[in-house]
Amino acid sequence: MPEPMPPEPYPSGGSRVPEDGAIAATGMGGAMDLATSEGETLEEPPVGPDGTGRPERARSLWSDAWRDLRRNPVFIISGLVILFLVFVSLWPSAIASGSPLKCDLAKAQEGSQPGAPFGYDGQGCNVYTRTVYGARTSVTVGVLATLGVALFGSVLGGLAGFFGGVWDSVLSRITDIFFAIPVVLGGLVLLSVVTSNTVWPVIGFMVLLGWPQISRIARGSVITAKQNDYVQAARALGASNSRMLLRHITPNAVAPVIVVATIALGTYISLEATLSYLGVGLKPPTVSWGIDISAASPYIRNAPHALLWPSGALALTVLAFIMLGDAVRDALDPKLR
Amino acid sequence: MRGATHAKWAACAAAVALVATACGGGGDSGGDSGAVLSSSWGDPQNPLEPANTNEVQGGKVLDMIFRSLKKYNPETGEAEDMLAEKIETSDSQNFTITVKDGWTFSNGEKVTAKSFVDAWNYGASLKNNQKNAYFFGYIEGYDKTHPEDGSAQTADTLSGLKVVDDKTFTVKLSQKFSTFPDTLGYPAYAPLPQAFFTDHAGWLSKPVGNGPYAIDSYAKGSQMSLRKWEEYPGDDAAENGGVDLKVYTDNNTAYTDLLAGNLDLVDDVPAAQLKNVKNDLGDRYLNTPAGIIQTLAFPFYDENWNKSGSDKVRTGLSRAINREQITETIFQKTRTPATDWTSPVLGEDGGFKEGLCGDACDYDPAEAKKLIQEGGGLPGGQVKITYNADTGSHKQWVDAVCNSINNALDNDKACVGNPVGTFADFRGQITDRKMSGPFRAGWQMDYPLIQNFLQPLYYTNASSNDGKWSNKEFDDLVDKANAESDTAKAVETFQQAEEVLRDNMGAIPLWYQNGSAGYSDRLSNVKLNPFSVPVYNEIKVS
Amino acid sequence: MGRYVIRRLLQMIPVFIGATLLIFLMVNVMGDPIAGLCGDRQCDPATAAQLEKEFGLDKPVWQQYLTYMGNVFTGDFGTAFNGQPVTELMASAFPVTIRLTIVAIIFEIVIGITLGVITGLRRGSPVDSGVLLVTLVVISVPTFVTGLLLQLLLGVQWGWIKPSVSSDATFGELIVPGLVLASVSLAYVTRLTRTSIAENKRSDYVRTAIAKGLPRRRVVTRHLLRNSLIPVVTFIGTDIGALMGGAIVTERIFNIHGVGFQLYQGILRQNTQTVVGFVTVLVLVFLVANLLVDLLYAVLDPRIRYA
């Protein structure tokens, strides 16, 4: 059970919370850092535990981040792409005519042609129409599963890392047990009893099996962040646990979680296909990128276009969220200001 | 294609490395009887006992290391005497079997009448857990050695089997079965040496039989090496030095290995590569009819599928399936649209009758729509075709069948596929009668007889009658045909039964499956038998 | 430290029991495995009953579990449906998979961290964008396809490797499969390292180190990298188990008879003995890997101490 020993308390309450100014003592400790921060402290009094300070300080870290984000072109571009994806998910018929279920075997594997810019897949379905209509399922599954995993995992992992001791032991060992469940087994057992053909059981399943990984990552970063001088200082000053977690630890521990979550988004969209392939995921007539990618994969030698387009759509989605994650992370990092 | 030329070079290199024969000459320049070929294989699901092997991969090995009383001709499928000197009967119920002289097992032990009787008794005895025990079900006394209801068995041996002398034994059946001798080529009827009974574990780790090959080494899960048995007394001795069966978990890998020259023979070309096969292999590719038919069965225990008018709905569905297009596009002609409920490998004399299904198997969307309407429409407005997702690539053809039905009925959601995760679960749902719509049914023949395509599948409560279809007229005709001692007449009666099946559309015939195989240019004279297994002993290696 | 390790090792016991029980129940819930043993036809009821008795499936679940665990502690992991002892399956599968995992982890560490450091130091540069592009491809194209293409190109077209791995599965043969297996994790490791490096490179201690006049190389490896590795190490730790048990696709493509394949087969055939046996060993691997990761925290960040 990791029970990190607090480092020797620094002689003065000189460390400062990150949002206070240009130079924050977020370094991993050491005498030299200490010198810098002490120098600064002389000029500026430390913030009281109640969080009130001078008027402009009322701006929280989060509102600072938001202000930064609005000016970040990366954020704007990724936001536009995501809005577009949402639009397509809600109104696929706006940009694609015809039904994604209308397939004519006579056209199987044919290439691009008028009315079917992306060609036809192995069953003779219009790849363009299916890619457009698949957005709803895939984006829903990807985003909701990622959100669920990230929230659930980071809360549990974060608490385990922050409180340590018995809490950590119990939560970590539960994580271990969940790690042990093979996806194939979990899918066949938990999803084969479900008769509903909505995305919810699939999302629930992904959250159930996905949270341990994020939980571990979050725990690791919280344990590291907890060691930082400013956290120790806040503790010494008597900051409440919730305040320390929200104001000091979360912003500094969130980066790895964002990185893993944005990549996981793509893998969840693919995992949905694996589940369908196993016969326990979404069933026809549901249309999704995952299903189409897995159906087109064996035919890569003959009809690569049927794989290319849904994969491309998936890549675009992941790219948008990776960029978004990067922008959010940068906005939350006071050192980059 | 570059890949192909390269593959040729690599194959030659491999050949040189293995047996130092000249390379570059044509494949037909005769064989080197000492050369060994490598072939793809799947890990057998059950221990390699003859009466316990019910799938092709185990059957492949049994086919090489065992010879039974009869052997099915690799080309015509006809049952020919192998170890049987003669099989005589006067009433189609009592048979006297004489075993040929001069046969031994590869460990030197003589093959006698007792070798057969002991083996059959072992297979029929409940306590030995033999999954093909039902093959002995026609023999008198089976109900004692293998009580249906699971009660304790009261006998260890079949009362219908008697050893007369070293070469002769008699078989008494519990009912008339005129074509019984023709079933005796099935591996379950193979003779077994004494070592099988005295040192069972030892035998299983390295089975010993009486076939043209003997097992040299067996590493479970990865490879089995079979070598030519030089003293083999039969006339179908191996024409190569042996076969190395390599376990592949994915037939696509085996195919790639064949292209790269690491493997000589692949007897299961992956569906996704069928389109490339001509390019990759040229004429080193076989596409031979096999005794396999795929059908869609219906749950007749479900009221929705067993009411008046249901037969019209079923026929309508059958007419909504464009078999021609699906076999061509999805299967690249490795399936042939079915027009009856048997298989072309039976031949016309054996009972295959092209076009027996008539209009009912012809694609006609307008007629299909009309029939289904007349029959009261699809139950619940939608059919779900259930299949298992873990073996074979059933999803592709089920989706294609559904699309065909949807197009014919002008309804995007008239038919959807309904995958089930595991084969065991799929079988479990069938056994527990939980199906609510059509489901995948396939049949690979045990022996090339029309009886084998009809009785086990459609006779009331037969072992593989998954849909529980039941029809008095059909049953009577089958009984009549079994009692018929004249083969031609029996076949005709079976075909009458098949017509009853057609008029009720007890199952929708989809297509006949072919065996497909690709091989390296070291090999020649490669053939697939009607069971879609390569005829290994005839392969020549250069 | 020593006491901490002992405590952690003791905690493995409840996890071990919990995980085996959970897996045991899950396989049990899947239903009757016997139905799948008789091929495309129904097992006759007598044989089915007899088989159930032989595999002990006729007893209540708790009794099956106790019997099984009792046997496990005497080293008997039961037999698979094909009559092969599970220990024999493990003995052939685990060494191969361990080698494959080692290759994959080495790729993750060497390529992943190197790329992560480079892209982290040069955010926004063409190298960074290029790596991001490759990352996207790796995430959105299934391993199945990348594996297949590599196999066709390297194995058939160019003839650099054998398309399939022999039963010896030497390290040399496992390089390409290991790369395919590691590909998605590589994306994670690269991005994690990149973010950590980017975050820490503005830290005071880095500035101090540079100010001290330390060579750039030493600053990066000694100060920057070491402090950035905790999330990466955590990820790799969680990945070991996933790589060992989840290499189903890679093992299939390259015909590797390893743990992923055996586990997959066992699950599809609902063979409790195989599945629970393999998962049991995997659980032990998870536990040890996690313990090692936690100990590594203390090495990487001396302020973290275990009592």
Automatic annotation (TrEMBL), chain A:
The chain crosses the membrane at residues 74-92, 143-167, 174-193, 253-271, 307-328. Residues 135-325 form the ABC transmembrane type-1 domain. Keywords: Cell membrane, Membrane, Transmembrane, Transmembrane helix, Transport. Pfam families: BPD_transp_1, OppC_N. It is a multi-pass membrane protein. Residues 1-10 have a biased composition (Pro residues). This is ABC transporter permease.
TrEMBL record, chain C:
The chain crosses the membrane at residues 12-31, 96-118, 130-154, 174-193, 224-249, 275-300. It comes from the Bacteria. Keywords: Cell membrane, Membrane, Transmembrane, Transmembrane helix, Transport. Belongs to the binding-protein-dependent transport system permease family. It is a multi-pass membrane protein. The lineage of its organism: Bacteria, Bacillati, Actinomycetota, Actinomycetes, Kitasatosporales. It holds the Pfam family BPD_transp_1_N. It is found in: Cell membrane. This is ABC transporter permease. Residues 94-297 form the ABC transmembrane type-1 domain.
